[in-house]
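Hello,

Our lab assistant flagged a job as stuck in the queue for most of the afternoon. It eventually completed. Since we weren't sure the result was trustworthy after the delay, we are filing this so someone can double-check. Below is the sequence as submitted and the structure that was eventually returned. Let us know if re-running is recommended.
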Amino acid sequence: MNDNHDITRFNLTEVHQDLVNLVKQVVSGESVILQHNGKNVAALISLKDLYLLERLIEEEEDRIDIAESQKIMAAVEKEGTVSWESIKTELGLS
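-- returned structure --
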């Protein structure tokens, strides 16, 4: 996410010294980026935002699964199916 609205950055040393206030900032709606050696390494977000992210990830995974299933079903309709007996014979299992 490149949108930098309401994001505060803190060095990990500062975080260690002032965690309670950082949590209060997150609860009030501000996102907090944690930095180590000048590099962004983590974020503090509200539980509401965490639940939203989890839901969005799940919905995207479902969308990907549905699209893949549709491709497989289209291939089955186009190419047909192979019987289990034919597969066993081909593999020398019968």
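-- support follow-up --
The delay was a queue issue, not a problem with the job. The result is valid. DSSP finds four helices and three strands in the chain. The chain has a mean pLDDT of 86.
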